[in-house]
C-alpha cells in the first residue's frame, strides 16, 4: 500500500511468458510492507561528519592552544523508543589536532619555542547516547537533544613542529608513535540538532597527556557541528 | 586517572548554554492549535459573512447556511484561552480551533479548561526536502507546440470548445506559493480585461498582494486559464478566479497547513466552486500510515470544504521515486479529487507520480492527467513536469463539466469526472480512472466495442487482442502505428488489488497470465482501447 516501487521493466516480466513489453508492474502485497527503517522509524542508520574546535582557553598557564581542531567521520545508529525518546550508538574515526603555543620557557614537549607546534591524535571512538525529540513529526529527525557518553582508543599519534631556517626555508620535524598522549580516554557528549545538522560539544573526562606530573593539560572542551548524511 | 572535574569550565554550564541557545528561538515561534468541544452562544449572519458571490453560490447550490461549520469559534472560549496564552494568530471555524502561542505552564492550564478538546503543536520548521516539480524552460520548439495542443486534446477539450464550454460562471480558487508576474504576463491579460480575478490574498504575508513572489502559481494558473499565442493552455479560460498564497518556497513549515485551511474558508466565503491545490504535505510531519484523511488537519479541512459544496482538487504528489512513495495530504481525504500524472509519451504513469491508495484503503488517485505540460513562467513560456500541472488541467476540465451541468452538486461532478476517465471502469493505484474526457463527461462518447477477449488454457489465461487493434507493420516488420497500452490488474477475492501493470501491446501475441499466479476467486481485469472486461478464476490451477 505504501512505498510503492515503480518498476519500469523494459524486458519481459516474470509472469508474462511472451515478449510483450511491460512498462509498469506493481505488486501491491510486497510493496505495502511498513518500513522499519527511516529517520523516525524503529531503526535508523546514517553516516555523519563532524568538525569542531577545541576551546582556545589556556588550561595550563604556560601554554596556549590556538586553532586546535577536531574532525570525525562515522556512523550513527538510532533506535526509536517513542515519538519523543530514542537511544543509540555512534562509531567514528576521529582526529584531534592540538596546536601548542608556549608563553614562557617550558619543558614539555621540549624547551624550545618553535614556530609551529602540533600534536596529532587519531582515534577510534564509540559513544552511547539518549535522545529527546521535540514535537510531533513524521518520518523525519526533527529537533533533538542528545546526551551521551563515549570512549576513544588511539590508533596513531604524532608530534610535529616547524622552525624557520635561512631565508624562506623551514625545518619540519615529525615524530611518529608519539608516546606522551593518553592512548584511551572517555568523554561526555551533547548535541542539539535539527534534521541533518547538529551543534555538538564534548567534554573530555581524562587528561590528554599521560599521567606524569609537570605535563600541561589540553582544553577539555570541544565545540563544533555535525552533518548527517541521509 | 587525572580528573578534569576541577577544571573551571563545567560541562553542565556548557550543556545549559547550548540548550538555552537552541531552545530560545524555537520557544519564541512555537504555535499551537487549541481545539474546542462546541460552539455555544454563537450566531451566524450569512449576508455579513459571505461576499455576495459566496452567498449566491450557497443559495444556487442549495447548500445549508449557518450550520455547525459556518458558526464562528465561541468568543467566550477564545477570551478564556487568551487570558492564559501569549498571542492569538488565527481562528478556524471549520476546525473549531484557534492558533495561539503560550508558555508550557499556560499550555497545561489551557489543556485543563473544560471546553478544550485538545492541543496540537503547529509550528515545525524543517529545511526539509520538498516535493519539487521539475522545470524545463525552452524556447518554443516543435515538441512544445505539439504538447500545447495535445494537453487539451488528451481531454477531448475540442468537444468543450465546440459546445462553448470554458468554465464561465464557475469560480476557481487556486492555492499556491505565489503568482509572480501574473498581473503583467501576456498569458493572463484576458483575465484582467474581464476582471476575472475576483480576489487575492497572501495568507503567509497577511497581505492582498500575490503577484510579487513565487513562480509555481504562475505556472499552475497557466494550465488552468493561460493563453499562448491565442491558444488556450487550460480549459477554464472563461472562469473566475480567487488566488491565494498559502505556502513558502524552499522550507516546509507546518503552519502552511493552517494557511491552506484559512484560504479554504476564505474561498468558501468568496463563493469558490472549485479549489485547485497543487500543494501537499508528507514526511516532515506524517507517516504514510497516517495518510487516511483523518489525521492531517489540512485533509480534515479539505473534507469540510467538500461538505460546503466545494469541489477540492489536489495533486497526488511527486513522491513515487523516493521513500515516501504514496499520496500526500490533503490528497488522502476521501472527498478530494486527487490527480496523478501520466507521461504524454507513454500514456502510462509518469515515474514520479505518487501512488495510492490512501492509508485507510480509499482508492487514490481518482484520476490522472498529463504530468508534463506546456505553461506560463513568470517571464516566458515553457514546459514543466509534476502532478502540480496535472491538477489545474483537471480543474479546468471540472469547471467546464460543471458549467455544462450546473444543477449537479460538487460530489456529483466529482463522480462524473471519475467516470469520464479514459480507463473507467478500470482503476488502479497509479492511473486512477484515467484521464477525464470531455465526450464522456457530456455523455456523447461512442460506446467502446470489444477490443480483446480472454482465453483460458491449462497453463495460462491469455488476453488476445482482436485483429483490428493489433498495430500494423510494414514489410520490414516496422510498426506503422504506435502500439497501445494494455492495463491489467489482478483483484483478490476480498476485492483488493493485488497486482497491476501496463503492457505495451506491440506484437501479434497474446498477453499471458500464468495460471499458477492466479488463485481461485481472483479476478483479472483488463482495459484496452476504451474497453474493459474481467475474468474470474473459478477453480484452482
Please characterize this protein's 3D structure.
The complex is a heterodimer of chains A (230) and B (541). Chain A is an all-beta fold and 230 residues long. Chain A folds into two domains: 34 residues, no CATH class; 194 residues, Porin, CATH 2.40.160. Chain A is built from one helix and eleven strands; from the N terminus they run βαββββββββββ. In chain A, strands 2-4-5-6-7-9-10-11 form an eight-stranded antiparallel beta barrel. In chain A, a hairpin with a 5-residue loop joins β7 and β8. The two termini of chain A are 24 Å apart. The N terminus of chain A is likely disordered. The radius of gyration of chain B is 26 Å and the shape is globular. With 541 residues, chain B is an alpha/beta fold. The N terminus of chain B is likely disordered. Chain B has a seven-stranded parallel beta sheet, with helices on both faces. In chain B, strands 2-3-1-4 form a four-stranded antiparallel beta sheet, with helices on both faces. The longest helix of chain B is centred in the first third of the chain and has 19 residues. In chain B, β21 and β22 form a beta hairpin. Chain B has three domains: 113 residues, no CATH class; 308 residues, Peptidase S8/S53 domain (Rossmann fold, 3-Layer(aba) Sandwich), CATH 3.40.50.200; 85 residues, Sandwich (Immunoglobulin-like). Chain B has 14 helices and 25 strands. Classes of the chains: A mainly beta (230), B alpha/beta (541). At the A-B interface, β1, β7, β9 and β10 of A face α1, β5, β22 and β23 of B. β1 of chain A pairs antiparallel with β22 of chain B.
C-alpha Rg of chain A, in Å?
A: 25 Å
* Percent of residues in β-strands of chain B: 15-25%
Classified by CATH, the class of the largest domain in chain A is Mainly Beta
**Quick one: biggest sheet of chain B?**
7 strands, parallel
Proportion of helical residues of chain A:
under 10%
> How many distinct folded domains of chain A?
2
The main sheet of chain B orders its strands as 8-11-7-13-14-15-16
Largest sheet properties of chain A: 8 strands, antiparallel, barrel
Major sheet strand order of chain A: 2-4-5-6-7-9-10-11
CATH fold-type name of the largest domain in chain B:
Rossmann fold
* CATH class descriptor name of the largest domain in chain B: Alpha Beta
Structural category of chain B is alpha/beta
Shape of chain B: globular
Q: Report the helical percentage of chain B.
A: 25-40%
Cα gyration radius of chain B (Å): 26 Å
DSSP helical segment count of chain A: 1
Number of strands of chain B: 25
